[in-house]
């Protein structure tokens, strides 16, 4: 599959390139990104270089489309759909610390979910969201996107810092995407 370019009112979503290595490396020094995602810790420049190679392979084999989120011409984060070939991909994203609290993740995720549920991808019936328990920011974003909270996956997250419980939510192709009530204290 060739990388798709997505455009929103404020954002450009495109395949990450070698020109993004320094910005990815800098953003992934954030302890929250290391805690709540599967990026290595410590995060080395070589990790960013390897990530660029991986995203190209994922686009080529059609298993994990991944976009760099660009805002005002700079890298603001990453977003992707893991295991899209299953028909129930998991949306994952991180936003650089200096780009948070600007609704960038909601805008980017809306574009990616629209892409996943497009008529030319009829096999995608569900998009999943997962976050490490305690990642309130990600949970607020998922709730705003219309995800339904579905429960807790015990010790399902594994990264270089260890194991953690995950919250899980789902969004079906036919679901109304209005914000949903969740049984979590999200404030």
Automatic annotation (TrEMBL):
Residue span(s) of domain N-acetyltransferase: 11-173
Q: Which Pfam families does the record associate with it?
A: Acetyltransf_3
Please give the superkingdom of this protein's source.
Bacteria
Q: Which PROSITE patterns match?
A: GNAT
InterPro entries membership: Acyl_CoA_acyltransferase, GNAT_dom, Ribosomal_N-acetyltransferase
Name listed for the protein in its UniProt record: GNAT family N-acetyltransferase
């Amino acid at each position: 599959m060739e990388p798709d370019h997505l455009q929103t009112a404020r954002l450009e979503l495109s395949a990450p390139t070698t020109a993004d290595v320094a910005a990815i490396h800098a953003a992934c020094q954030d302890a929250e990104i290391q805690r709540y995602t599967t990026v290595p810790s410590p995060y080395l420049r070589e990790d960013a270089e390897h990530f660029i190679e991986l995203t190209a392979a994922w686009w080529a084999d059609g298993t994990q489309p991944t976009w760099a989120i660009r805002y005002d011409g700079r890298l603001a984060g990453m977003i992707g759909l893991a295991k899209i070939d299953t028909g129930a991909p998991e949306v994952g994203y991180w936003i650089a610390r200096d780009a948070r609290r600007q609704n960038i993740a909601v805008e980017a995720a809306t574009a990616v979910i629209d892409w996943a549920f497009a008529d030319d991808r009829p096999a995608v019936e569900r998009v999943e969201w997962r976050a490490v328990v305690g990642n309130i920011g990600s949970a607020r974003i998922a709730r705003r996107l219309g995800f339904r909270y579905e429960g807790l996956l015990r010790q399902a997250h594994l990264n270089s810092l260890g194991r953690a419980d995950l919250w899980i939510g789902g969004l079906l192709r036919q679901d109304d995407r209005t914000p949903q009530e969740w049984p979590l204290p999200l404030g």
